[in-house]
Amino acid sequence: MSHESTLTKPQAMIFDMDGTLFQTETLLLPAYHKLFDTLRSEGLYTAPTPPEERILGSLGMLLDDIWKVVMPDGSQEAHNRANELLLELELEGLAGGDTLLYPEVKETLKALHEQGVKLYVASNGLEHYISGIVDTHELAELFDGLYSAGKHCTRTKVDLVKLLLEEQQVDSAWMVGDRSSDVEAGKKNGLHVIGCAYAGFGNHDELKGSDVLISSFTELLKLYEEAASHT
To answer: What top-level branch of life does the organism fall under (predicted)?
Structure first.
């Protein structure tokens, strides 16, 4: 891991959503259990609900790949129905108001925005899920763009971030995330990567290759303020 002094002030910051900005388990786990209750009631799945660790460990993957991990014994019909149910139940959960961002996320994003940093989301999630979180937690005015695999039909986060950089004409950015897919997306697009080590969904190797690891979201502001300006 390189030292913080090697960072230069970016034009933009690109954020993963789950496990980075949003405490996913506050929304996901209640929806997860309802989802399997519904699949069983509809006769699409007969086994007990798979362990929560499977879905939490799959965060950051594309949705189709998640179900292959969570219920490898499920039919394609069950996987397709799970896709529909998860979005429906998560949007209901967001409307219910019991979900959480990580501490100081909104305040830190606001401070970065006020300093002129362009802020983006790049997530492998569905479009309405990402926009639902942003709207529920009143973050819309802080972001310059929301990019999701669901909307842009990208197969990897590398491709999604590449598209974002091209469309938004961003020359320098930090990729901020908690999974290996975020590290890969940043590095393959020539970006500095800030690894978020506070969510705890992945294994210890998830953030290998990050330039800096942070243990709370507020550290991002300090990193930005101490980063060297472009010469």
So the answer is: Bacteria
